[in-house]
């Protein structure tokens, strides 16, 4: 089990490392920044903070918005405008940003 976990973490790290953060930032600036801000730290409670989220969570959410299995009329056209590579890059960009959110005990 420990070996399987190590393999999964290695594969996930390789996938995030393969993403192009500069391209993710550029695409986020074009598509996402108006609502979520360029670094993903939205100060409007209507739009979630994306900074610091797990890249795989963000990637899955964008794919689900794009294919309609996650229903959101606002996000649908934005997600549909992104290629798979764009989604990987944008997800990695937001995941790499420090979040303004804090954990409370």
Automatic annotation (TrEMBL):
Keyword Metal-binding belongs to the record: yes
InterPro entries listed in its UniProt record: Cyt_c-like_dom, Cyt_c-like_dom_sf, Cytochrome_c_Oxidase_Subunit
Keyword vocabulary terms for this entry: Electron transport, Heme, Iron, Metal-binding, Signal, Transport
Residue intervals of the Cytochrome c domain: 19-98
Secretion signal span: 1-19
Keyword Zinc in annotation: no
Protein's name in the database: C-type cytochrome
């Amino acid at each position: 089990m420990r070996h399987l976990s190590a393999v999964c973490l290695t594969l996930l790290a390789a996938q995030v490392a393969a993403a192009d953060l500069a391209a993710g930032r550029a695409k986020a600036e074009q598509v996402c920044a108006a609502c979520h801000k360029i670094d993903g730290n939205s100060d409007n409670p209507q739009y979630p903070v994306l900074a610091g989220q797990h890249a795989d969570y963000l990637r899955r959410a964008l794919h689900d918005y794009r294919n309609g299995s996650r229903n959101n009329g606002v996000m649908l056209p934005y997600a549909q405008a992104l290629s798979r590579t764009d989604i990987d890059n944008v997800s990695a960009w937001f995941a790499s940003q420090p979040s303004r959110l804090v954990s409370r005990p």
